């Protein structure tokens, strides 16, 4: 594998033991992606960032991987995970920097971030709709500019672009609560800016990967400039970019012409955006280690979860070919 990233989350099982799941996402030369459960660590005593790091380090070396090709760490955002000094992320960054490689991108799970953004807003029951709209707005520069203009219009009590708000005004014979609306929208805007600062710090890197055709050459790092010039001057590449997925597009680019762009794409593609796989596996763990099986050993728990998260079918014929069967009498 060229690069890999990890995702971790922690939960407590039915016997009150802290279990830390470690998932690995790897990308190879051909941009093929593999995601798998690497380890299940039972934290017997405490669950500090230093202790989790030692377990992660052990797992990485067991898998034959190296810190020098680790490009991302995605966690649930707890202090023991994301602490800059004694937390897991801080320890991992130190280990990667010691190899001479750039520090990996540290990400607080997007799903957690979205939930936290609206947790304290006074409209929690409609946050699913709000999150969907915010996601749409943030991925489109024009929509983001329009939102800013809308906020300014609401502050002026101009509801020309908000027919539902106008309807409220007409049906209730009173002014729409613009102060409240502006307060909520401003709060959400601030929350998203604060909680998604992980992505803000990596915005330039992500934009290069997301759409190299939309970039200004003079703003690019030197190593990308000539490659992007060659890329945007080729109409075939432009057409394929519109039709294919990003993974397919970068896999198609010739290695000899675009080595830096392809290297950068592999790094970004290898990164987990959320700890969804961990959450999904914890749900399975509740069935595996239920109140009826609290004495299940750590080894059996890990083996069961590894089997439960694999995406391939077991070849029973090959497994049983050397076994001797006992026929019934």
From TrEMBL:
Molecular-function annotations in GO: protein dimerization activity
Short name of one Pfam family: Dimer_Tnp_hAT
Alphabetized InterPro entries for the sequence: HATC_C_dom, RNaseH-like_sf
Domain HAT C-terminal dimerisation: 256-306
Protein name according to UniProt: General transcription factor II-I repeat domain-containing protein 2B-like
Lineage: Eukaryota, Metazoa, Ecdysozoa, Arthropoda, Hexapoda
């Amino acid at each position: 594998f060229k690069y890999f990233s990890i995702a971790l989350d922690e939960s407590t099982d039915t016997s009150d033991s802290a279990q830390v799941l470690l998932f690995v996402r790897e990308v190879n030369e051909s941009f093929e992606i593999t995601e798998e459960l690497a380890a299940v660590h039972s934290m017997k005593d405490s669950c500090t960032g230093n202790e989790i790091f030692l377990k992660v380090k052990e797992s990485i070396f067991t898998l034959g991987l190296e810190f020098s090709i680790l490009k991302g760490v995605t966690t649930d955002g707890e202090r023991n995970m994301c602490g800059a000094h004694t937390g897991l992320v801080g320890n991992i960054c130190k280990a990667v920097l010691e190899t001479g490689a750039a520090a990996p991108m540290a990400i607080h799970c997007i799903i957690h971030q979205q939930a936290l953004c609206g947790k304290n807003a006074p409209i929690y029951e409609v946050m699913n709709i709000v999150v969907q709209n915010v996601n749409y707005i943030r991925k489109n520069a024009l929509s983001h500019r329009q939102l800013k203009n809308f906020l300014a219009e609401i502050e002026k009590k101009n509801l020309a672009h908000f027919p539902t708000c106008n309807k409220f005004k007409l049906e209730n014979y009173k002014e729409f609560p613009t102060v409240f609306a502006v307060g909520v929208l401003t709060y959400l805007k601030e929350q998203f800016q604060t909680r998604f600062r992980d992505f803000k710090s990596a915005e330039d890197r992500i934009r290069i990967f997301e759409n190299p055709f939309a970039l200004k050459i003079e703003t690019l790092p030197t190593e990308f400039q000539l490659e992007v010039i060659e890329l945007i001057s080729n109409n075939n590449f432009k057409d394929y970019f519109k039709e294919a997925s990003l993974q397919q597009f970068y896999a198609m680019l010739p290695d000899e012409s675009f080595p830096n762009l392809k290297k950068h794409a592999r790094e970004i593609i290898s990164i987990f955006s959320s700890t969804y796989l961990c959450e999904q596996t914890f749900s399975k763990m509740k069935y595996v280690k239920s109140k009826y099986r609290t004495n299940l050993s750590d080894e059996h728990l890990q083996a069961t979860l590894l089997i439960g998260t694999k995406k391939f079918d077991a070849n029973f014929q090959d497994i049983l070919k050397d076994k001797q069967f006992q026929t019934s009498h």
